[in-house]
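Revision sheet: structure tokens.
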Amino acid sequence: MPDSRASAQDLDRVAAALAECLPTLNRALDRRVAQDFRRPRPPEGQLALLRFVAQREGVTVREAADALLMRPNNVSALISQLTGEGLLERRQDTGDKRIAHLHLTARARRELTEVQHLERAHIADALQSLTDGETGALGSAVGALTSLTRSLRPAPAAE
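Predicted:
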């Protein structure tokens, strides 16, 4: 763990502010996107799975569950919903019929692109209301937030 020059009180203050701010930021963005999305916006769990499959086409259910920090049965339920809605395809592994590989449908790609475009547009609009210093601070913080996310991920289970 890297040495920190921040006091325990400073760390606690930042931790509390992030714990309060980040979920609120996410909910506010969700609501803005939901206002502009042409159809009912998929729930966050479904969007997270669709985003992950878009990045890792052909991923297995187990790999998706591990990456999304979800239980495999919960991911399986999401997959069933998304396949039923025509957004996801389950393709059987050629070597092991028990394994399914996940692929986005063309419709899912279009809808995911639309959601991502709306998210970026709303964030870009909100960033315009900030000072140059605030925008710069947020830009600098992106890397730190990514590192923080990695630090919060649970350690892989021993096999």
